[in-house]
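Lecture 7, part B: from sequences to assemblies.

Below are the input chains for today's worked example.
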Amino acid sequence: MKKISTDTMTFKYLFALGLLAVLSIASYFILSENIKTQKTGAAVVNISGRQRMLSQRIALQAHQLADTQNREIQEKHRLALSDTIKIMEESHNGLIKGRADLNLPGNPSQQVLDIFYSPPVSLDSRLRNYLNEAKAIAGDPYEELSPDNPHLHYLSERSHDLLNAMEILVTQYQIESESDVRKLQQLALYVLGIALFVLLMLALFIFRPMVRHIEQETDELAKANEKLLELDHLKSMFIASMSHELRTPLNSILGFTGIILEGMTGEINLQQRDQLQRVYRSARHLLDLISDIINISKIEAGRMEIIIEDFSLIKLLNEVIDSMQTQIKEKGLALKVSLPADIQMHTDRKRLLECVLNLLSNAVKYTESGSINVAAGERSGMVEIAVSDTGIGISRKDLPNIFDAFERLESHLRIKSGGTGLGLYLTKKITTEILGGIISVESKTGRGSTFLLKVPENIKQTELNEEKEESGSE
Amino acid sequence: MKTALIIEDNEDNMELISFILNKSGYETLKARTGLDGVELALENRPDFILLDIQLPDIDGYEVLKMIRTSEIDGSIPIIAMTSYAMTGDREKMLKAGCSGYIEKPIRAAMVVEEIRRIIGEGQ
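Predicted structure of the full complex, as structure tokens:
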């Protein structure tokens, strides 16, 4: 399958989005332009249409003025006529030069200019002559106002032609207004068409390939995940069989060297005993290493079997202390134990025992003289077990790494000490990941160390379920 | 002399255990598979059985069940041999009717002590 570059896709996608944004803005401007055009078009047509009516009214009002003898009424007609003349003149100027308050745009087209200024229509001069005659009547004194007034004649004769000329203008305005609106509508259609085209391209060249790409990736991920599960299972099987395969020959080495050392096969000399003891210790060390590694892998794979028991903390601590008693005496160390009233625990007994035993055996291992102190207490559901010694201590430099794998102290005791270098690492893993507790240390070089273990008295049901689920997949 | 049946597939372990038992004054019968072990147990009625958990055909747990269900006169003491690190094995075997257990790696003193605890002194 073709590999898709997401960078190119992103670029294409952003480009398409940008284009759509531009098109949207364009269509907004087209729409507002359209509304403006419609408004001014309507205004021009209306006002040019009203001019026809005004020319007729001027003729009528001129006649009324000439016809009446009553001076008062004459004055009234004179004023009305002047008003009408004024309106018509202003409208005419507005159509030519533009007037914002009437929505008149001005700048007439060539055709309109021709109608205004060129024969045969020459509307401008026709209209101005007409208005001048009307103004003359409006300005004439009483004596000259009669139906025979020459200006009145002029108006009567010309009003029909003027009306026709203005009709031509209105028609022209109507045509222009409609064509402007049509042009804008067409432009809007083009923009819409381009937008739809862009959307189609977006679907064909970006959306569809991306969906395929995602489907393909999801497929691959699912397959990879399956493979990983398989590998994880293989790893577990491997660890389980390693546990057997590595231990069997070691058990044999330990067993046979053991019976020879016990003298069951006859006498051996001192040198042979010393050398066989070295074989025995090395094999024992190797066996411990294997056990630690297997336990660590089990915890890391979430496959450590957890066995919850109800038991007494005091009994557990005494069991640990008893098993170390011989070594403590051999080294001539003092042992101080301060235990509280008994606490009932509900957690993995064997793992807790392992942790405490490891801390105590470390304390004995790294202390040449002085005392070992084991103390326990309880605070709001957490049991605290402290193991202190007066041993070599841990330097400031080593302290942060003390719980890491194979992080043993550089010291003269190191060679003598044995140990796998995995003890504290495993203890911390068990404490935090199995028992749900924490472990901490305080120490100074030459001043001894205090390891503090804090674990819940009662392992929480939820934690237990999680662990069960994980180990259930085995 | 009391007779022990050892059911163990690993040749070295077999040699080690039979050596310790012989030295301690027991006769030994040897079976390398689970089914052989069951057959020998029923035919020879040994005084006690040392049983490995991981066997090539059927595991120690199966062997234990077969002997326990097919036995006619009383129960032969059966001592399981389990690896220290294999948590769960020991509890499972004791629950299924094992009389005792020995942890691997095997130490002579430990083996003899456990046998005496279970079948008593006299040889």
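Note for the exam: The radius of gyration of chain B is 13 Å. Keep this in mind when comparing with the next example.
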